[in-house]
Design a protein that fits this description.
heterodimer, A: 11 strands, B: globular
Chain lengths: ~110, ~120
Amino acid sequence: SQQGEEDPQALSIQEGENATMNCSYKTSINNLQWYRQNSGRGLVHLILIRSNEREKHSGRLRVTLDTSKKSSSLLITASRAADTASYFCAKDSSYKLTFGSGTRLLVRP
Amino acid sequence: GAVVSQHPSWVICKSGTSVKIECRSLDFQATTMFWYRQFPKQSLMLMATSNEGSKATYEQGVEKDKFLINHASLTLSTLTVTSAHPEDSSFYICSAPTDLTSGHYNEQFFGPGTRLTVL
């Protein structure tokens, strides 16, 4: 069963706004990864944050990790219509990835 | 970056037939690959871990005899759905890690997926 839950399940924002997605997990992790999936396609790796890191940036993406709360968040700043996709967090432990339930992001032009 | 391919990208078959899906790492060697299944608007569920030169490790609830996995070489893993039924219709995705550092995998690269429809 899935170890991570994400919220919100769906998010609709206007282009230019920021989008924040949250992910929670239950057991210890080596690292936590965020992936993006366009409809009907494979996954694209966005960012990896290790268990000893608290924050990481990549372009318009900012990821935080709070191991005490077993939660992570993904912030996309200045969103674009092309950011419309599903976003998944994935917990890396025991040599396997366990995916969260995902957030479907719609960015309206 | 590393590239993982899958073939075919989509397949339609009759109930009772077997379907083979290939997953290839194009520019790196992968001693381990992972197979996932994704139903519409749902998350990815890990089915099994494919290990080169040894038996695959299946997740709880996944039938070994129904989903046959063969990791024939360092760049190829195959998933065969045997005696497929309509409930097996799904999106099958493979992935491969490129690095094994300090005892754990880093970034994984995913194939584009194979959409299986069983009539």
